[in-house]
Amino acid sequence: MNILPSFKRKIKPKRFYEELAEMGLLEDYLKYQQSEKYEKDIQFRNEMLDILYQKSIIAVTDIEVMYLEKLCESLSYFLEYIKLWKNQRH
User: Within a domain: residue 54?
Assistant: First the structure.
């Protein structure tokens, strides 16, 4: 049984962005060096936000706000859905 292929899938080299996040520098790097790409490329921005969320040693307020907004949206939808259900029961 060759475990090398499954081992390679699980182990990936650390990327430059991840190292910056671990040092607490990725947010500044994106702001001052990659601002245009960060603003225009949605896929890149989402990838960077994910790296910041997973690897940053400091709290990143942009990510916290983004997740709180998504939570509020989900809860609002849920409350509206329940309101319809409650109205149907009465």
Answer: yes
